[in-house]
Request: fold
Amino acid sequence: MNEVIQVNGEQKEKLFYYLNKYIASSQNNGSMVWKTDEVSITLYNSGKLLFQGKAATAWYMKVAQELGLNNIANFSRETEIENDSNLNIIQYSGLPRIGIDESGKGDFFGPLVTVAFYIESKYQEYKIQELGVKDSKRITDKKISQIAKELKLLGRYEIIKINPSKYNQLWGSMGNVNKILAWSHAKSLENLLNKSETQLAISDQFGDESLILSVLQEKGKSINLVQMHKAEADLAVAAASIIARDTFVSQLKILEEKFGVRLPKGASSSVVTQGKMYVDKYGKEKLSEIAKTHFKTYDKVISG
Reply:
């Protein structure tokens, strides 16, 4: 991915000072070049600053912030996608940002939980890294519970819990899981923006990018929302995924205690078995209180 910023004379001195702290510079046909294995940054005489390589966007965001171009929507940007695989490895390390992720989308039982988590400083990011934060799908529930408690002390966050009954109502009106996800992602972001100042948010791309953008309110529309596949590679999104999964597991246990039935995760054959036990006890009319009824699993549970 290539990124471009147009800089003026006053910004060049600040640019030189900042980049020279991290990357060795050289000259090439009158242009100034900073280059590593992951990025090549070229400043042309015209003031055009070109970022190339797999870490281009990460450096583009860092430099933009350093130059005081905080409102990303207000400065010149040109993007060319060289290779779709590069979208999966974009990192925004060191930048203040909100990460958004959800849990429960693929689980027949239990709620859909969406979390927005704000990383505000490099120190905070370092402390989060020390906790061993990564995509929640790669961590046990026990470890997730431990990390989630620490994360809640380290940063601001917003949790949107959609219980099964509410989820089924939304499905009835929207008829599309991606629309429900878009609403919950936008809601968690807007709520967190009411108590956090940032110009960047990162979300996993689960459908057309316009889905979230279409339901954002004024504050959400004023920032740069990056939607990308495998967004959990970003620390803020990974932190959100951990809190979301921990909340989902906790809510599932509450439902188990309330109804006295074991509720497995996912949508496997054991889920069908436990669903049938629940129906035998409470009737199929009550299934919407614990399960997402648009799943094909629903038909298996109520059959026979």
User: Anything to note?
Assistant: Residues 2-89 form a domain with the TATA-Binding Protein fold (CATH 3.30.310.10). The longest strand covers residues 112-119.
